[in-house]
């Protein structure tokens, strides 16, 4: 068995997009799907490209419930951004493929999936959502 | 209508007190407030109180005396103290009571607050993947604010520098030594753009305030501080709050803006009428944003304010004269009441080395917390 998403209902089945939620009455779009099913909420496929609206960098290993590497030797600071998906919502997401010191507001980014612990054996790897800079722009 | 007055104020020093639990710190503050107003516990007709981590406030009666009074526990996160005060004011305004108390206390373990995703309606992956940290929210929020309003990171450092400078002069503060700007800026980054010295820490402490109707206050013959407004509000659509897996593209207002506007209306005043302000400074960025959200400047002007020292104790609007949360720490239940305590001391002119010059007559407080609550008071001597 290969790497699996960290949770159901996070990505679409083919892992090509995140699943968002739309309120059928108001049209309000948010992420992720609510924990309890709601007739008023329908799942939607979120856009896979957007821009960094803001970000920060997690510089120290988080405590529980964090499930990634926390060993100070192995921990690498990670960037957390709000990525604005046009016409939909802003999704909180890690950034990847860019040095944390090079992240800028307004960067164009696209969705990918990364292992929570890159050093875990492949069959145990859990995939989380992340956005990476759009190449060649 | 006649005003509700603050006739007594007590505080247990903030920070760390080994061997004394949160509620005992609360008792300490209550006894000090009673002595300050020259009354006894049996004279207190009702109380509102709360703590986030140190038990039910109404249990205080077992130490203070079983007088049978109405004692209602308040649990409103970071606005617990402000909400207790708000409720106490309403009880007196209603005419049902003449004199009562608002009290808040807490004692938190060291380190950042632990949070459980399910308590916020979030899936477990949100915590596992490393998003369940309040510090990320603070970093991301002020990162955007600095960008939008062209404010430098040094301004964040100057807020912290001022806090520690004021803390040195404050008996009840936790951090009592100055930290220079260079040290603050070069300290380890916690969540960009905020370094270690730009965050407050969970702490311990307690504050009690005795409130009375104007008639009762005059009978007591103590210095009278009038509560011209006490307002608590929750967030509007499109605000940016902690632990949000998504936020709307369309941005909205804030709970503080709503509370501030209502408080000024209630008092019949505007920001230009205020002599001193205590603003929520969970981290340096919060003070900067709250300066504008409360109407004391326009977004972007904070850069010049901090550079020119306009929010220093000797400035045109002293802000966080006791060093705020940055120097005092943040015991959730007590924090909002500490701001009011500081204003009472300042308006009485008994703040010693940190006394705001020029005989201040009006003072403002604003507390803000998760998930988008804000409480504002305006005091007048």
Q: What percent of residues of chain B are in strands?
A: 15-25%
Strand order of the largest sheet of chain A: 5-6-7-9-8
Give the H and E element order of chain B. EHEHEHEHHHHEEEHEEHEHHHHEE
Kindly identify the CATH topology of chain B. Answer: Peroxisomal Thiolase, Chain A, domain 1
Number of domains of chain A: 1
Broad CATH class of chain B: Alpha Beta
- Average pLDDT across residues of chain B? 96
CATH architecture of chain B: 3-Layer(aba) Sandwich
Largest sheet entry of chain B: 9 strands, mixed
Hey, roughly how much beta strand do the residues of chain A contain?
Answer: 35-45%
What portion of residues of chain A is helical? Answer: under 10%
For the largest interface in this structure, which chains are involved and how many residues does each contribute?
A-B, 44 and 38 residues
Output the radius of gyration of chain B. Answer: 20 Å
**Alpha carbon gyration radius of chain A:** 16 Å
The named CATH superfamily of chain B: Thiolase/Chalcone synthase
**Poorly predicted residue ranges of chain A:** none
Number of strand elements of chain A:
9
What layout of secondary structure does this protein have?
The complex is a heterodimer of chains A (about 140) and B (about 375).
Chain A: E1 4-5, E2 19-23, E3 29-30, E4 41-45, E5 49-58, E6 78-84, E7 90-95, E8 108-115, E9 126-133
Parallel strand pairs in A: 1-9, 7-9
Antiparallel strand pairs in A: 2-3, 2-4, 5-6, 5-8, 6-7, 8-9
Chain B: E1 4-15, H1 22-37, E2 46-50, H2 61-64, E3 70-73, H3 80-93, E4 99-107, H4 124-128, H5 134-149, H6 153-167, H7 181-186, E5 189-191, E6 194-195, E7 204-213, H8 214-220, E8 225-234, E9 246-247, H9 255-267, E10 276-279, H10 284-293, H11 302-308, H12 324-328, H13 332-348, E11 362-369, E12 373-380
Parallel strand pairs in B: 2-3, 2-4, 10-11
Antiparallel strand pairs in B: 1-7, 1-8, 4-7, 5-6, 8-12, 11-12
Helix pairs in contact in B: 3-13, 6-10
